[in-house]
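step: validate -> pass
step: tokenize input -> pass
step: predict -> running
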Amino acid sequence: MRYLGKLLGRVLRETGGEDLLHDVESLRAAVIDAYEGGEATGAARAEAIVAELSAERAEAVAQAFTTYFHLTNLAEEHHRVRVLRHRGDDGGLAGDSFPATYASLVEQLGDEAAAARLRELRFHPVLTAHPTEARRRAVTTAVRRITDLIDERDRTTNATALAENERRLLEEITTLLRTSPLRTTRPTPLDEVRTAMSVFDQTLFEIVPQVYRLLDDRLLGDDAGRVPVTAPAFVRFGTWIGGDRDGNPHVTADVTRQAAEIAAEHILLGLSRAATRIGSTLTLDASETPADAGLTALVAAQESLDPGIAERIGVRAPNETHRRALLFVAARIDATRRGEADLAYPGPEALLADLRTIQTSLVAAGATRPANGELQNLVWQVETFGFHLAELEVRQHSQVHRNALAEIRAGGELSDTTEEVLAVFRTIAELQARYGVRAANRYIVSFTQSAADLANVHELAVAALGSPEAAPVLDVIPLFETFADLHASVDILDEAVRTEPFQRRLAATGRRLEVMLGYSDSSKDVGPVSANLALYDAQARIADWAKQHDVELTLFHGRGGSLGRGGGPANEAVLAQPRGSI
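step: predict -> pass
step: emit ->
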């Protein structure tokens, strides 16, 4: 923090001279004195400093503090990462690490039960929509560039490299200081989607297989890479961005469709590039690494699909069958992205089947490390992201459903609002047909107050598509958020699961059911302490109910970042859940 503050001081001096730096430092010192109580006049002195600033200087000082706080947060996050890396220096065999936890499970439960727990592991964060978020993507990416330079500085000891690193840090801090922090136009839902995509492109796509690999390396030890992987693809992403229409009239069926298309474009482009990169390195000669029968059949099928592409790839890799097969896979992924029906994959399962055929052939030929290396990373990415990247969740208020159904049942011409409600279900059906059911099948009903509020969703889906057979596959998720709704949750669930649509879906999913708990509105309703007690009680009762009815329960915790929205340390929140609810 001292180092970054020193660099910011240099930039302020270069930008606005000694006077700007003096104003910033004087105000900072006065506020610190006021906060620490060491000087009774600190607050008055801070007010006096601000009162004397011109409008132009006040803006410059405010921007300086905004930049300072960005750097302060960055330093804190960097320190957290450094602490975690230090904890991992023992190979992850101590403390609350994955390997230590798994070793404890094996000791308590035995190998078979521990392996079953590992297979059932799931981490499912959901990106929620925040249309009031005013921070520009330019600011976010500038902070990320500074983060990368600080990471680089931690790993550098060469004096010349450190000097170059500092020059680049000063350049990036200057850019951040001079970048307008606020949008000049209201962000649209699709702006939010594109911001989320930048996080995916820059971080998530590459990091997720690294997480799996870290776990697998620690669990397998010296056998890692030589034997089949143990770590399952346990991460799944959800998103409300482009799907959350509760209170946001700008989120329409067309916006939901575009949001899904943007996400699919990004993931298919990422998979295509990864397959091309890995295929280009899979230069194992057929004389040393012959294709097995499965791969031979796959290559023949590829040649019949598009002889021209197969011939072009064959010219580049005439005696490298595994390479030829994977480069053709990359071409099919790209055709899927472009919507070329003849060559496109019908879904991610077909792609996974081809990748596993290549893996199996490599293992049969003794090339186990190439089979379990970068190629396995690609398998993990397909398992995690599919062709949709994140499961697009729709959320709508229960009252909107009631109003729409009342119009439909009354007959006559439907309002634009009701037509839009029906259009959403048609869009969900289209997305499922194009990208698979996982792409968009979770439908959240906010302010669920009765079982009818859940049954209404299924009735509207049938009305929109014309029949139960044509309706999209839906997991209708109640959102209990007020004190009264939390109290009534078990009675609502008990009645809902007796309805035919819920019975059918429970049978199809192995009796799995998801329930969402709202932390923000319950806190606003009765205050944080009463809300947390109500949430604890509701979870305990819902968990008991699920056990009695042989239901595999998933609780979706609508926790935000701040305490007022149910935030706090995630590990403490998990440990604080009622027995049986996890």
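step: describe -> The mean pLDDT is 91.
step: cleanup -> pass
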